[in-house]
Design a protein that fits this description.
It comes from Nostocoides vanveenii. With 134 residues, the chain is of the alpha+beta class. It contains three helices and nine strands, in the order H-E-E-E-E-E-E-H-E-E-E-H. Strand 8 and strand 9 (109-115) form a beta hairpin.
């Protein structure tokens, strides 16, 4: 699973989240960072009120949590979502002895990003695409 730190970097780089069922997220509160939530039509639904998106918690009467603003949530994109965001710049995903290698088309050829976790390797590639100067 993508680390909270990498997810925060993606958000800071301007990677936008349009919440959908199946998405996972954490609430941006240090006491809740260890709790990963999943959007589901049965438990956490996306509600739109005027110009605000809210994640509503259904059936959680044991919690004092009814909903949370989207800007208080940190999206933890899945492998398929990261791959989709990279789009046609993706050249290859390779398994290495140390983890995973993602190859993407860059300004001067093929850029290679490696990490022990496949989602972390995709996130590194996406961050490089979003901010090529870093």
């Amino acid at each position: 699973m993508l680390s909270l730190e990498s997810a925060k970097h993606l958000a800071a780089a301007g990677i936008m989240w349009d919440p959908r069922p199946g998405d996972r997220f954490v609430i941006d509160n240090e006491q809740l960072h260890q709790d990963v939530f999943w959007i589901s039509d049965l438990t956490v639904e996306v509600h739109h009120y005027q110009d605000q998106t809210v994640l509503g918690f259904n059936g959680t009467t044991e919690w004092a949590l009814d909903s949370v603003d989207l800007d208080q949530s940190i999206w933890l994109p899945r492998e398929d979502q990261l791959r989709e965001l990279i789009g046609d710049r993706l050249n290859a995903l390779l398994r290495t002895p140390d983890g995973w290698e993602v190859r993407v088309s860059g300004a001067h050829g093929i850029d290679v990003h490696t990490a022990p976790d496949v989602e972390e390797a995709y996130a590194a590639a996406l961050l490089a695409i979003a901010d090529p100067g870093s």
